[in-house]
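hey
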């Protein structure tokens, strides 16, 4: 039997009516001759509520219990979806992660897949069941405890099942009808793309476009899964949505293909750090040990006085991290200072910044993208605080209040509304 994976996100299973709507889409594929693995998220808002309950109960919570609580949202929707399908006459059975089993590492809160043995689901399909409804976002550790994969992780569950079961396609049903040139909720001119290359999608996702979890794109790329994003609220067929595929499948690509943003960033500067070998390692070692996800790093060496004749030279060291990790970062740096391994005059935190990035494979071979980006931001009077680049992206850190404006200005400057 040909097999499809269909994943429904939180808004697509937000209430019983929407679960029924999603179930009808599944039934349609079963009627067309497919066996289907359905991956469901928790009802929208549910995971946030569960996380809130954990944090209110225990500030420095035990991550194993966080996962036990937070994974429960998906269990509810998996059971309800199986029941709805049964009511419609479709033989369906629900599966929690441990029942499959979805074996993961024991990194609670951000576990990774280790293996997904096919035997149990295959046996059920062989019995005549047409649909396996699997709770997304969760798995089981080698110690036998429930794990979760990080926010947005059901996308990754879907791709992992598509790879493990050799699915014809992995369809991600969500509340937008595809991947856009930028978030259509903050830029009215955003344009839906028919296709996007894995590399570009990977950058957009890791730079904040939450339409797909970054890890899901990585897995799809590695295992050559045909990955598609489409709307659960519209009538859809094989041509709907956006296909995430190899670069070679895309006839022409623009220099810049998308704009992404990440709202909740912070910038931390250590003022007048000694300029000597080993300083960066003395700062970023403790930050890594504290689990801080450092993103952009800037160290500006003053050429004046930077030679053997001026041994007392100093520099500033700036880095960015997610805003909810500021306290942890501060503590790591201050502890290192108290222990005498770093010397600096002051630590300055700016918690009101956002990161805006432009992404495009064409940047590999085109000059001038940075200049165009900076001029577009300048003409809107948006001040750039930090700049970071890689082969196919340029990111800037700016005041959060200008984030929407910056996204729109960049979308205009690179004429992304034009196909
Ligand atoms: P789900 O609950 O279905 O997993 P998410 O909220 O995680 O849905 O992801 C869908 C959302 O991603 C959209 O509602 C949209 O606001 C946002 N988004 C951000 N960037 C993009 C983009 N480039 N294209 C489409 N959607 C985007
Ligand atoms: N429910 C989880 C979350 O909100 C996983 C997901 O929806 O992908 O992050
Ligand atoms: Mg999501």
């Amino acid at each position: 039997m040909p097999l499809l994976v269909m994943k429904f996100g939180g808004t697509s299973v937000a209430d019983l009516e929407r679960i029924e709507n999603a179930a009808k889409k599944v039934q349609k594929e079963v009627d067309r001759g497919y066996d289907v693995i359905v991956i469901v998220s928790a009802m929208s808002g549910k995971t946030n509520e569960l996380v809130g309950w954990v944090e209110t109960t225990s500030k420095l919570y035990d991550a194993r219990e966080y996962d036990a609580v937070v994974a429960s949202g998906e269990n509810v929707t998996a059971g309800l979806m199986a029941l709805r399908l049964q009511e419609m006459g479709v033989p369906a059975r629900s599966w929690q992660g441990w029942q499959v089993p979805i074996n993961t590492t024991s990194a609670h809160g951000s576990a990774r897949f280790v293996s997904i043995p096919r035997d149990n689901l295959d046996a059920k399909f062989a019995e005549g069941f047409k649909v396996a409804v699997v709770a997304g976002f969760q798995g089981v550790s080698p110690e036998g405890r429930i794990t979760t994969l990080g926010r947005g992780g059901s996308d990754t569950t879907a791709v992992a099942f598509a790879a493990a079961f050799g699915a014809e396609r992995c369809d991600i049903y969500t509340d937008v009808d595809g991947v856009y040139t930028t978030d259509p909720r903050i830029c009215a001119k955003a344009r839906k793309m028919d296709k996007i290359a894995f590399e570009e999608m990977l950058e957009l996702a890791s730079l904040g476009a939450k339409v797909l979890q970054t890890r899901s794109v990585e897995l799809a790329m590695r295992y050559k899964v045909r990955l598609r994003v489409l709307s659960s609220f519209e009538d859809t067929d094989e041509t709907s949505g956006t296909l995430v595929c190899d670069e070679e499948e895309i006839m022409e690509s623009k220099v810049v293909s998308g704009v992404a943003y990440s709202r909740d960033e912070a910038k931390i500067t250590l003022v007048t750090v000694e300029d000597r070998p080993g300083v960066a390692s003395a700062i970023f070692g403790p930050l890594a040990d504290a689990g801080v996800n450092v993103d952009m790093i800037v160290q500006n060496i003053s050429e004046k006085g930077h030679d053997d004749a001026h041994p007392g030279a100093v520099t500033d060291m700036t880095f960015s991290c997610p805003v909810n990790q500021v306290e942890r970062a501060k503590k790591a740096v201050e502890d290192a200072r108290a222990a005498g391994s770093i010397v600096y005059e002051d630590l300055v935190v700016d918690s009101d910044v956002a990161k805006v990035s432009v992404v495009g494979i064409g940047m590999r071979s085109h000059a001038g993208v940075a200049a165009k980006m900076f001029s577009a931001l300048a003409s809107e009077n948006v001040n750039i605080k930090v700049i970071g680049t890689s082969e196919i992206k340029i990111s800037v850190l700016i005041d959060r209040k200008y984030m929407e404006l910056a996204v729109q200005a960049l979308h205009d400057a690179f004429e992304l509304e034009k196909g």
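The chain has two domains: 3-175, 259-413. The chain has a mean pLDDT of 95.
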